[in-house]
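Reminder to self: keep the SMILES exactly as supplied, no canonicalising. Ligand is flavin mononucleotide.
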Amino acid sequence: MSDEKVRRSHLPIHAVLNERFSPRAFSARPVTDTELELVLEAARWTCSSMNEQPWRFLVTRQGREGHAALLSALEPSNAVWADKAPVLILNMVSRELSRYGNENHHAWHDLGAATAQLTAQATALGMGLRQLAGFHPEVARAAFAIPAEFDLVSVVALGFPGDPNDLEEALREREWQYSTRKPLSELVSYGRFAHRHRGATPEG
Ligand SMILES: Cc1cc2nc3c(=O)[nH]c(=O)nc-3n(C[C@H](O)[C@H](O)[C@H](O)COP(=O)(O)O)c2cc1C
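Structure tokens returned for the bound complex:
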């Protein structure tokens, strides 16, 4: 694959951000304990509202305790490829602020930030991951006896990217497609709020 194709933004953002993509194809290469610790450590050092660190990660590894249970909580459309990922991570947050006992309105926000840091570290190590909203939280909650104070937000399928040819045909096609993004002009306004719709010109 040429460098031109790997880089997706036309601007020189950091390679760890620009080369990241969400794979469905995973190689058989295992994730070592050290590699796993590094990606989790990267998440640990994320900033959070009041330094609450509301995120919790339940990690399972292929063939080991809990993995089959977490896999069985995934939507079948995800389980069909995620079973090749050597690591699954159930992302959770505590909704309660430890200091005041009231609701942490930024808990999900902070988990998203932690997942982004985890993702950047994984990419820097040559790994790939795909986050999944397509799972049944209550199935996972029951399987692991997770208390109600935790929201079960998403699952990460983590490993080393594999050969798209190993995927079933429909997924293979999607693995080869580069994902697109809304233009900055739709996402950002300066000085006053401007609600721009998809397709607006950068000036519009
Ligand atoms: C919170 C979240 C949930 C997602 N859920 C799923 C999912 O259930 N199944 C899936 O195949 N991809 C899922 N994705 C992957 C997105 O579809 C993907 O990130 C998006 O299309 C952009 O592609 P890229 O990550 O390769 O740039 C999810 C991503 C995020 C961040």
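Points to follow up:
Confidence is low (pLDDT under 50) at residues 1-6, 200-204.
Residues 21-22, 78, 130-134, 154, 179 surround flavin mononucleotide (CB under 6 Å).
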